């Protein structure tokens, strides 16, 4: 009788272990079969867009001048016939239409912000290129 009970207990134990292993294998197989990970992420960078506004003032300070200022497509064009010793001051506005802060003439212009700048013009004035850079954080 003890032997029969032992065989019955052994059969139950083997059956239990068999089903545990079977369900474990089924779970792993199902997980492997359904293993798909989909990620989508959009990364964008900021942009720099400085715009010269059309409002400017030109103040002749000394000397006679035939001076004209033209702002077209982001270019400030100054044409002049001046006498030696001429001095004048041009005040112009720069607007940051970009999405990142910009350093221009050692001043920080935040997005959608505008600042006024002054440019001294004299008889020795030659072509000038304006430099700007993005703020590094």
Description:
The chain has a three-stranded antiparallel β-sheet with strand order 1-4-7, with no helix packed on it. Strands 6-5-8 form a three-stranded antiparallel β-sheet, with no helix packed on it. A two-stranded antiparallel sheet has the order 2-3. The protein is α+β, with helices and mostly antiparallel strands. The chain is rod-shaped. The model has no long low-confidence stretch (mean pLDDT 79). The protein contains one helix and eight strands, in the order αββββββββ. Strand 5 (102-104) and strand 6 form a beta hairpin. The protein has one helix at residues 2-33; strands spanning 50-62, 65-72, 75-82, 87-96, 102-104, 107-109, 114-122, 132-134.
Write the layout of secondary structure elements.
Blueprint: H1 2-33, E1 50-62, E2 65-72, E3 75-82, E4 87-96, E5 102-104, E6 107-109, E7 114-122, E8 132-134
Antiparallel strand pairs: 1-4, 2-3, 4-7, 5-6, 5-8
């Amino acid at each position: 009788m003890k032997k029969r009970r032992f065989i019955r207990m052994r059969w139950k134990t083997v059956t239990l272990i068999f089903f545990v292993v079977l369900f474990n294998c089924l779970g792993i197989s199902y997980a492997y079969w359904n293993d798909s990970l989909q990620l989508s992420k959009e990364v964008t960078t900021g942009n720099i867009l400085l715009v010269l506004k059309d409002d400017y003032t030109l103040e002749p300070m000394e000397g006679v001048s035939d001076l004209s200022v033209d702002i077209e497509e982001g270019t400030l064009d100054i044409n002049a016939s001046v006498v030696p010793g001429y001095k004048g001051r041009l005040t112009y506005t720069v607007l940051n239409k970009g999405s990142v802060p910009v350093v221009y003439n050692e001043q920080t212009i935040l997005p959608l912000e505008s600042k006024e700048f002054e440019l001294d013009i004299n008889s020795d004035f030659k072509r000038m290129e304006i430099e700007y850079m993005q703020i590094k954080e």
